[in-house]
Amino acid sequence: MTKQVDTEAYSIEHRGNYPGQAWAVVLPRTTDEVSAVVRTCAEHCVRLIPQGGNTGLVGGSTPDDSGHEIVLSLKRMNRIRNISPFDNAMTVEAGCILQSVQEAAAAQNRMFPLTLGSEGSATIGGNLSTNAGGDQVVRYGNTREQVLGLEVVLADGSVLNGLSSLRKDNTGYDLKHLFIGGEGTLGIITAATLKLYPVPRQQATAWVALQSPDKAVALLAALGEELGDRVTAFEIMARETVNLVLTHFPQMREPLPTAAPWVVLVEVSEASRSVPVREEFEAALVQAIETDCILDVALAASGQQRQAMWNIRSHIPEAQRKDGPSLKHDISVPISRISEFIETVVPRMQAIVPSIRCITFGHVGDGNLHFNQSKPKEMAKEEFLAAATAIHEVVHETAAAIGGSISAEHGIGRQKQDILLRYKDPVAIQMMYCIKNALDPNNIFNPGRVLPLRQSL
C-alpha cells in the first residue's frame, strides 16, 4: 500500500502521538515474504519500521515524517503453528493478538500468563520487542521469561531459526535475548515458542486499604512469607488515582467504604485443588490487619466482584485520557525504596507545579511504577506542558539516584533516547551500538529508535 488513505492508520500511534508519513506499508503473510522484503530493502538501503498492533507508547513503531520509511506490518502473520500441552509450549506467529494466544492456550487446558490492558489489540511480536510486563509479573515475570525460542529475520534477509521448545540448551550464546526488548532494531521477530502453565483451579482476589506505600511493600513481603509464589498480582494505586477512575466512570464502585490514602489489588492463584488457598490468603490478611499493616480489606466473593475490582485498575489509562493533559513516566526502583522515591519526588514536583496531581499506580512486585501527573484543574494546558521538561527531569533523576530505571516496560522508542544516553552506563551504550552495527550495519531496522542516529558508529 502506498496511498496515504491506506497508510495513514499505520503512521500514527493509537494515542495520536508521533504522526509520520509512510512511504509504503507492506503486509507479508509468511516468514519467506518478510525475508524477501528485507532483502530488497537491504539492497536499496531502504528503512523498515516493524509494526505489530501499534499499541506502543514511546514512538517506536511508527514512521517518521520524512516519507522515506516503509512500515512492515506483521498483523497478517497470525497463525498458531503448534501447541504441545506435554511440552507446556506453543509456537505462534508474531502477528497473533495476545488475547488470541491466551484463548488458544486455554482451549488446551493451559495458560499463557502475560496479561495487559491492551491484550485485545497488542501482538506477540510487539510484546516481545518491548519485553512487556503486565499484571502477573510477581509470579511469572516479564515477557522475556515466557520465551523458549524465536524465529527472526535478520538484516540481510537470512532467517534465524530458533523455535525450540527445549528448556535446556547450553550451546553457546542465547541469541533470542538480543531481540527480546530490542524494539525491532536488530531483527524482525516472525514467530516465537512460548511457555505454557497449568490453569489455576483456585483464585482469590482482595482490595486492600493501606496508609502508605511502605505498608504495601510490607504486605507483599508478609504474603510472600505465607503464600510463596501463589501471589500472582500485586497492584498499587494512590487515592488520587482511584478517585480519577470513579469520577470518569461513575458506574463503578470502590469495594470498601473507607477512602484510604493507598489501595492494593492483590490476587493469589493455585493449580492444585487440595491446597486451601482462599483460607490461607484470608488468614494472612487478618494477620496483616492485626499487626496494623493494612487498614481494611474486601475479599471478592464471586467472579463478578473480582472483575469489578480489576475494572478500576484497568480503566486508569482511559480515565487519564478523559481527564485531559498528563505527563507519563514508566520507571522502576528497588522494591524496598518505592516509598522513598515517592516521598522524595512529590515535593520536588510540587515546587514546580504546586497543585500538580500525581496519578500513581503500578506493579509493586517488580518495583515498576506508572508515575503520572495530571494537569491541575485551574491551570492552562500550555502552562502545564511548559513545565514538562522540569517534571521529567525530577522523576528520572530521582529514580536513577536510588538505583532505578527510566523505563521499566514501555521501552525507549523515540521518546526516551536522550534520557537513555544520560542515565545508562556509557560502556553499556557503546556495547549496544556495537551490537547494532554488527547485526544491522546499514541501519535499516527501526533507525533512530532506542539509539539516536547521531551516535552511529
What's the story with the biggest beta sheet?
8 strands, antiparallel
Average pLDDT score? 93
Secondary-structure-based class equals alpha+beta
Count every beta strand, where a strand is a DSSP E run of 2 or more residues: 18
Please count the helical segments: 16
Radius of gyration, in angstroms, nearest whole number: 22 Å
Q: In which range does the helix fraction lie?
A: 25-40%
Oligomer: single chain
Name the overall outline. globular
Strand content: 15-25%
Cα end-to-end separation: 33 Å
Unreliable stretches (pLDDT < 50, length at least 5) are none
A few lines on this structure:
By secondary structure, the chain is α+β, with helices and mostly antiparallel strands. It is built from 16 helices and 18 strands. α7 crosses α9 and α8 packs across α11.
Structure description:
The protein is globular and about 70 Å long. It has helices spanning 4-7, 31-43, 98-107, 124-130, 137-140, 176-179, 213-227, 239-248, 277-290, 303-314, 316-323, 338-352, 381-386, 388-401, 417-423, 426-439; strands at residues 22-26, 47-51, 69-73, 80-84, 89-93, 110-111, 147-153, 159-162, 188-195, 197-198, 202-210, 231-238, 262-270, 296-299, 326-327, 330-332, 357-363, 368-374. Strand 17 (357-363) and strand 18 form a beta hairpin. 34% of the residues lie in helices and 21% in strands. The strands form four sheets. Strands 11, 12, 13, 14, 15, 16, 17 and 18 form an eight-stranded antiparallel beta sheet that branches. The protein has a five-stranded antiparallel beta sheet with strand order 4-5-9-7-8. Strands 1-3-2 form a three-stranded parallel beta sheet. It starts with a helix and ends in an 18-residue tail after the last helix. It contains 16 helices and 18 strands. The longest helix has 15 residues, at 213-227. The chain is an alpha+beta fold and 457 residues long.
